[in-house]
Write a structure and sequence with these properties.
It is built from 24 helices and 14 strands. By secondary structure, the protein is mostly helical. It folds into two domains: 150 residues, no CATH class; 397 residues, Up-down Bundle (A middle domain of Talin 1).
Length: 721
Amino acid sequence: DVPKAPEPRCDSDGPRRGSLCSRHCAAINNVQGDLGDLGCHPHRPRVPPAPCTPCCCQQHSEEVCESCVVKTTLTAENLVEANKLSNNYKFGFKKWKSHVTARPWEDRSEIVKELYSDLNVIRSSGGSTVTCGNVLYLLLFGWWLSLLYVLVAAVMFVTVVGAPYGRLCWRLAGYFLWPFGKVIQKVEVPKSQDEASSTGETSPLLGGPVPRRWRPRCWADTGYWQRAGAVVWLSLGYPVLAVAHGLVCVTAWLLVVLIPVAKLSARTVARVLLLPPERVLVRRLRMTEVPLEGEVILCCYRAVNPYYYKYAVDGINVFAVNLLPLVLVTLVLGYVDSHNHLTSSSVKFTLALLSIMPLSYYIGMAIASISAQSNFAVGAVVNATFGSITELTFYITALIKGSREGNRCYAEIVKSALTGTLVGCVLFVPGLCMVIGGIRHQEQRFNSRSAGVSSALLFLSVGGVFAPTLFSKVYGKLVCGECHNVTQNPLGHYLCHNCHFDLMGNNGTLYYSHVQPLVYTVSLLLPAAYLIGLFFTLKTHSHIYDIHISDCHMPGHHHSAVVHWSRWRALVILLLSTLCMSACADLATEHISPILTNSTISQYFIGVTVLAMVPELPEIVNGIQFALQNNLSLSIEIGNCIAVQVCMLQIPILVLFTIFYPTNFTLVFSDLHVYASMFSVVLMNYIFMDGKCDYFQGTVLVMVYFILLAVYFFAPSPSGC
């Protein structure tokens, strides 16, 4: 309970120092919780300071200044990140959360530093090495790697000249069976042995610095037996072990949490196995012993680290890196195996759909990089142009295929995907963010005014999109495919099937004279309303989206922005990702026919779930991350922005496309789509009314979404499919 404070007064210098409102403002703006301790200085680029409100906290102590509630604070390490945040986190633009600059090493947490460190650091007390992750390593890799080293050691002993390498493999067999708490060191050869090398007492293979090639540098100065041992090792032992460690490295890297094992194998192949046997020392570390002599090559304590989901390669998340080969496999299988000799259409469709996820990530990363290094106008154009490229590419390719085959089912699938995206972004995305954010924060506040603007536009867009549908219901002619007399009486009751409203009666007079002009009118008004909303929120009423950028840095540290991708590199990646996206969308639509015809699940359900939500997975992850940081305003804006773009940009673009390329797509939706969309928008507007939420309200939204999915699951397939 906060004691009631006297009425604050606003002087020319601002609000009274130490007032309750100021303390509330400081508590709300400081969403990171430690900005004050880090010496952060909030600032807003190109945004004038908000005027002081004299009636901030007059009546009740728990009331918070409205100007404080609507503020959203983000943290930027440098000017490039601040420019990206200022350009991207606006109304009507997709929110791309990827970091476009390298974070300073000194500002990273100890957990993140451990992820990027080499496995050559000895800790004084590492605790017990018997963990579940280490046992998992033993079961997956340790036992057969150790057995392989024993077999290679036996082969080396049989050759006689490779006996030194056999002894090395024997020691490494024990190491790789359980490498935890052990260390591999590179010891220096005594001077006497160096002098005796001319007589053939030491191995010349990779002596001194580690060479970058397999060919030894100075065979002419070595003895015959040492050269023979090196040749045998490079011919028989090293290739087998390199292949085995390569397999371990790839497998562990793909599993992400086992990346320490991947580093262990890569460092073994690159360094340990290329050293002379007498220079490799394997020893066990004790709790009080820290070896000081010799270079430490390998020292591993844990095989599993769950925090490796944060690992990035050149600014790219490790999951996006691992999924990139999937895109290549999809394209090769899709266009080389066109007759389905290697895989079925279902497998190709699944691969093409999964390939859209990493491509969406790369498109978002490229857009964020270009926006961060450009002015607001360039960033806005790039975001508006490529922000919906993923969905539009799939929809247009599906409509083209349906038009060529004369199959109306593709148009119905596109309508289902559009409705599924709208319903999912209005219910599932904010609801899931509320639930996950509510686990960490008891109550979360968000910008109710900005949510109100989005809700108003959603009402307008839903009304405009479904206006032709409602018009057709009023003036259309109900036509049924088959009717049966139930009572055997000519004047009795009839049971009819496959009934729909026919718009093409009388040679399509109703459609071409009334419905089609209404569709074109709506398709012009919706983008105009979108532009008015942008002008309202970005120009005349920009204080509604009052985003603060906190330049947070440690005192005494100089932060120089090191950009991961330059503008030209980001542009090239953006174009290549868009091209690959088009190819994957083409493969998905090419191989969706067997799924639609042979599946027992309703085509409505396939379009609403799989085709609608899979491309939006990167945005869902971004929303969850914002919610965990107590930035629920941005989590809600992610869903609202996608829903607004579906109604006000994507659907008008599809209508415009049908003018130049006639397809079966008409802006007349089924009753199920109309009711689900309108109910979702009304429920969202009711939940967002008070500007605060908790996990219970999020649970309500998620449950309503799953109820609608159940309705789509049990619904019959649309006519024409």
